[in-house]
What we know:
Layout: E1 2-7, H1 18-27, E2 30-35, H2 43-50, E3 56-60, H3 74-80, E4 86-95, H4 104-120, E5 124-129, H5 132-141, E6 149-151, H6 158-166, E7 169-173, H7 183-191, E8 197-199, H8 221-232, H9 236-250
Parallel strand pairs: 1-2, 2-3, 3-4, 4-5, 5-6, 6-7, 7-8
Amino acid sequence: MFVDSHCHLHFPELAPDLPDILSRMAANQVDHALVVSVDLSHLADLMAVVTPRPNLYASVGVHPDCEGVVEPTVDELVKLARPPKVVAIGETGLDYSRLEEPLEWQRERFRVHIRASRESGLPIIVHMRAATADTLRIMREEGAGEVGGVMHCFTESWEVAEVAMAMNFYISFSGIVTFKNAKALQGVATRVPLDRLLIETDSPYLAPVPVRGHVNDPSKVVHVAEKIAALRGIPVAQVATKSTDNFFRLFNKIQRIVNLT
């Protein structure tokens, strides 16, 4: 079976089609998915998606791109993370690709999320874009490795992956790894140890080859696994098993469910 470690099923591109998406997931043996928060104003919508469904889980957090919002405190995030369905903090991190300095508010938000991760004991989901040095520096300074987490939608070098893994983080590959121009990333995907690897869709974005250009959903995470298996010259079942085991090892608040059908 497969697990989508990062998706946004509560987004308007996907929520209206949720019954069909769940059916496609079942048909493709995608048995579980983590629905990731990007802002707290829509957390109720996210929880409405995951709460009645035993194979869907939630995170709580505010994406680094969200400007002009009320900043969460450590205590608020810890409180929001208490329900059984909430298994992670994030997504959080740094993204310098769209915004210009001063961005100290973004760095402080990241620190707050790491502190909430340590306080709650829940792993953290890290978004890193055009901000590698600062992201890794703040992770070190705030002791992010104490709990660990996942470098979501990883697009960095092998050297960056090594640093993150040394801090108790998993490396998650999205549909980007299937793109023709992603040769360097494909090389990283052949080197990350199987016991530190996760797969994701980041849906509704980043649909993988062969469905690139379409709206993405968790049923399509199988294409990510297939590409990684092909790159490594191993059976796709091995990628499925290892990445699924890793998911439950990292997000260990989840009580693993087997044979949902």
